[in-house]
Amino acid sequence: MNTVSIYKCLCDLQRLRIFNLLSEGPLCVCHLTEILETDQVKMSKQLRYMKALGMVEAARAAQWMVYRLAEPTHPLLDENLKCLQDCANEEVRFAEDLARRRELLARLDASECRSPSMQIKL
To answer: Is 117 inside a domain boundary?
Structure first.
């Protein structure tokens, strides 16, 4: 991961929204598509790009693919993600996404995308 690839990745609103959501913990692709109101193909394309850069990682949980921020992260990405979290309180769309994330996870039952190893949390 290098400086240019980090900033290229951060130059897309949908990827910023994904980072914002994953900063709160792992999510299944199906949940990301629901929260961001997009289709699975577009979401998978974004996540594949982010994974190729080493910014997110994925694990299979039953039939679902669950994504989380990659660890360890690059220091430059860490600083930008902290800035993104600060902006989340000011940017309406980011705050709305986080509220939808909380609502979605609150209504899930234990059988949906809930693998203890992925530590999906409310």
So the answer is: no
